């Protein structure tokens, strides 16, 4: 019997060793051990799901930096998704949109990744590694919108998604209050992501990928993570390109604020700096409930921000990512990034009474954001079409504060440093919820991997979601997006036969590719490159707005809610993606 097992094991190793000479085998030999995947019968894409890249962060490893996974001796069965990270429940609307009816199997033992690869080994494929968003609170690499099979089958790339620790498990910074017992407990989620990146770099060649062509992609909080990794000297050697989708540039907290949150977290558990080590023995639900209670009691941040975020700790990170990239430009790394036109609609448009917002309420909301709220409001009011209502001015101000202003700052800096960078704006204006969502935050995600069939499911099951583009138009836009994203991953140039010529961003022309421009409801619009489409506000940010905002940056995390915020903007439906 032992002889038979030995012969069988030898055959398995031979299969994995000589896979390069054959169509990609679903059994792969990696530095961590043998991994068994499967070939999808419909797409002919090889799936490897739930692969551990780090030791489970449990017991003594809870609230510690990620530890690379130890090699295993048996064949790892990678035919089903692994655990998702433990996370807070979403309100019903967000639950329907982002979990898409998937019941997540959650656990602290969640540091795993998924790989989709072409069923061929004739060449080394470009690798696209996606870091999901979720405001640092929710999400998983196994979500249907993140599935990489269609991107692989259409774009001939290798696609990877990862999990990382969320909420307090990934973003509570205990080093700020108990440095002796928790010397390395800051930015744990970043340590997870870096460990996953290194695992992919070390092993992806066995899956048909080229380790020297890794494109990091992130959306929202995931894009903030990608920008952070890009600023880290330890991460840059593993990165060839990055795609930043809707980066919330203000999602970085001063160390003093992080200390306040860590103290509040321990206090809610009846712990102090001296007794903090007791967190090792607490059950998961207690920690998760405390995470939520700290959020609920600490409503001192505007929509789109969270108390659980990267901290500028003065050690690993001594400055914000934008400043770090300016001081140490990422030469040799191609960059593509952009935003959705109506990002802030995600937080505001489904809330009762928001359309009745007055100018006075808008000014109260932004009083802690801009030093001169009335002047800032007037700048936006004058830049937008005459008669734009106050609630829509609030939406544009929120979009700029969280996303657009930082995007402009980065691309201007990249252009000045001579870095190859492309900028886009996604404009598909969904008519969901009576035409209120528009091109809101997250709406781009199904298109970049051609998972827009999820839209059809939502349209038939979610009340109020509204009409959808026709199948032909929907597939055309998705095809364009997949071709563009995968072309960039392969060459550093997003141009392809499906879109107009797209020139890199430069300081003279400020080129921006407008996807689904002039779209509405069933009309998908068209793609067009424009020169400086938002010149007025871009110049106002450079001239004055950024100074009013930056001088008040810490106030974004010390915000007392007004009646307007509690009734019109802030409710339980506060989670981002």
From TrEMBL:
Residues 27-520 form the Carboxylesterase type B domain. It holds the Pfam family COesterase. Residues 1-21 form the signal peptide. One of its GO terms (molecular function) is carboxylic ester hydrolase activity. InterPro entries: AB_hydrolase_fold, AChE-related_enzymes, CarbesteraseB, Carboxylesterase_B_AS. Coiled coil: none annotated. It comes from the Eukaryota. Its EC number is 3.1.1.-. The keyword Cell membrane does not apply. Keywords: Hydrolase, Signal. Belongs to the type-B carboxylesterase/lipase family. PANTHER family: ACETYLCHOLINESTERASE, CARBOXYLIC ESTER HYDROLASE. This is Carboxylic ester hydrolase. It comes from Jimgerdemannia flammicorona.
């Amino acid at each position: 019997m032992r002889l038979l097992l030995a012969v069988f094991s030898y055959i398995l190793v031979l299969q994995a060793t000589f896979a390069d000479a054959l169509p990609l085998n679903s059994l792969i030999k990696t530095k961590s051990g043998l991994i068994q995947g499967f070939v999808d019968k419909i797409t002919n894409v090889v799936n490897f799901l739930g692969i551990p890249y780090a030791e489970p962060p449990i017991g003594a490893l809870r609230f510690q930096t990620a530890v690379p996974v130890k090699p295993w001796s048996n064949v790892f069965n990678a035919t089903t998704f692994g655990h998702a990270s433990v996370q807070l429940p979403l309100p019903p609307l967000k639950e329907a949109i982002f979990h898409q009816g998937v019941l997540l199997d959650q656990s602290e033992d969640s540091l795993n990744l998924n790989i989709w690869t072409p069923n061929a080994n004739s060449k080394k494929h470009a690798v696209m590694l996606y870091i999901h968003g979720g405001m640092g609170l929710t999400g998983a690499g196994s979500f249907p919108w993140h599935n990489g099979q269609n991107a692989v089958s259409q774009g001939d790339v290798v696609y990877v998604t990862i999990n990382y620790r969320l909420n307090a498990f990934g973003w509570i910074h205990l080093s700020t209050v108990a440095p002796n017992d928790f010397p390395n407990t800051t930015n744990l989620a970043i340590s997870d992501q870096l460990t996953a990146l290194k695992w992919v770099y070390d092993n992806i060649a066995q899956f048909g990928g080229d380790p020297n062509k890794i494109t990091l992609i992130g959306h929202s909080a995931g894009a903030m993570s990608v920008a952070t990794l890009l600023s880290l000297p330890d991460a840059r050697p593993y990165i060839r390109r990055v795609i930043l989708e809707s980066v919330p540039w203000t999602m970085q907290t001063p160390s003093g604020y992080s200390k306040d949150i860590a103290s509040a977290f321990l206090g809610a558990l009846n712990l102090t700096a001296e007794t903090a080590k007791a967190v090792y023995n607490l059950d998961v639900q207690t920690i998760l409930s405390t995470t939520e209670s700290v959020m609920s009691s600490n409503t001192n941040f505007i929509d789109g921000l969270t108390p659980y975020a990267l901290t500028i700790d003065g050690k690993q990170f001594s400055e914000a990512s934008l400043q770090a990239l300016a001081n140490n430009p990422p030469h040799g790394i191609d960059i593509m990034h952009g935003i959705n036109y109506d990002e802030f609609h995600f937080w505001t448009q489904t809330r009762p009474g928001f359309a009745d917002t007055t100018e006075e309420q808008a000014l109260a909301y932004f009083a802690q954001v801009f030093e001169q709220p009335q002047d800032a409001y007037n700048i936006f009011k004058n830049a937008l079409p005459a008669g734009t209502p106050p609630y829509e001015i609030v939406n544009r101000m929120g979009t700029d504060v969280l996303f657009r202003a930082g995007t402009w700052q980065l691309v201007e800096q990249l252009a000045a440093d001579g870095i190859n960078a492309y900028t886009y704006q996604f404009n598909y204006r969904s008519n969901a919820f009576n035409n209120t969502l528009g091109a809101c935050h997250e709406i781009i995600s199904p298109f970049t991997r051609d998972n827009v069939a999820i839209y059809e499911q939502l349209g038939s099951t979610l009340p109020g979601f509204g009409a959808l583009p026709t199948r032909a138009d929907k597939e055309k836009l998705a095809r364009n997006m997949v071709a563009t994203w995968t072309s960039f991953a392969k060459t550093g140039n997003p141009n392809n036969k499906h879109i107009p010529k797209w020139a890199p961003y430069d300081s003279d022309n400020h080129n921006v590719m407008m996807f689904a421009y002039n779209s509405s409801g069933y009309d998908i619009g068209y793609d067009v490159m424009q020169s400086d489409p938002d010149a007025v506000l871009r110049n106002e940010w450079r001239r004055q707005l950024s100074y009013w905002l930056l001088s008040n940056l810490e106030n974004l995390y010390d915000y007392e809610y007004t009646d307007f915020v509690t009734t019109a903007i802030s409710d339980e439906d506060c989670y981002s993606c």
